[in-house]
Amino acid sequence: MSRVAKITFASSIILSAGIVWGVHYMQQQERETMYQGVLRDDERRREKMRQREEDLRESQRKRALYERFQPVSGSVPPQQVTDSETEG
Questions:
Q1: Residue 78, domain member (yes or no)
Q2: How far apart are CA 31 and CA 73, in angstroms?
Q3: How much is the average pLDDT of 12-27?
Q4: Is 74 left (phi over 0), alpha (psi -120 to 50) or beta?
Q5: For residue 48, is it within any domain?
Q6: Angle at 77 between CA 75 and CA 82, to 5 degrees
Q7: Distance CA 67, CA 77 (A)
Q8: Which domain of life is it from (predicted)?
Q9: What is this structure's pTM?
């Protein structure tokens, strides 16, 4: 093998190895970025649920306050309705 052929062969091996390493590195970075997105989505979902629960508690507190000053007739919370009331 001539010297030029050896240099060409070695440089093509090095270039190929570099390309393979680069592709694997980019895939690893993309996988990490996608995982971070999942974590952000989970955090947003937890924050939204926390906010909704807080809004529900605030709404229940306001309703109790309003009903204390102005009772609503015929208003029965769903957990207090019995089967006999719904049949009749």
A1: no
A2: 58
A3: 97
A4: left
A5: yes
A6: 100
A7: 12
A8: Eukaryota
A9: 0.51
Residue 73 backbone phi and psi in degrees, to 5 = -85, 145
Q: DSSP letters of 37-63?
A: HHHHHHHHHHHHHHHHHHHHHHHHHHH
Question: In the chain, how many domains are there?
Answer: 1
Residue count of the chain: 88
Q: Does 51 score more than 70 pLDDT? A: yes
Q: Does the residue 81 lie in any domain? A: no
CB proximity list for 75: less than 8 A, separation 6 or greater: 67
Chain centroid, CA 6 distance in Å: 54
φ/ψ (deg, to 5) at 28: -65, -40
Q: Quote the DSSP letter at residue 73.
A: T
Name the phi and psi angles at 71, rounded to 5: -60, 145
The type of residue at 19 is I
Structural domain contains residue 54: yes
Cα distance between residue 65 and residue 69, in whole Å? 7
